[in-house]
């Protein structure tokens, strides 16, 4: 499945979601990437004790 990114470069994505269009898959990927970048920023800029976070999640 191929789609153009915002710079006009073709991106190729492999998926098993045959019920979605290339545009839908790329939007899901873009959203997921934004979330990953947000968590990376959190880890770099906010001092969180990971043990405390894991305990509260359980």
Automatic annotation (TrEMBL):
One of its GO terms (molecular function) is DNA binding. Pfam families: DDE_Tnp_1. One of its GO terms (biological process) is DNA transposition. InterPro entries: RNaseH-like_sf (IPR012337), Transposase_11 (IPR002559). Residues 13-45 form the Transposase IS4-like domain. SUPFAM superfamilies: Ribonuclease H-like. This is Transposase IS4-like domain-containing protein. It comes from Siminovitchia terrae (Bacillus terrae).
């Amino acid at each position: 499945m191929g789609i153009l990114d915002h710079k006009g470069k073709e991106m190729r994505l492999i998926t098993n979601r045959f019920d979605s269009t290339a545009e839908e898959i790329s939007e899901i990927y873009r959203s997921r990437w934004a979330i990953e970048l947000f968590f990376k920023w959190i880890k770099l800029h906010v001092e969180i004790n990971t043990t405390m976070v894991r305990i509260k999640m359980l």
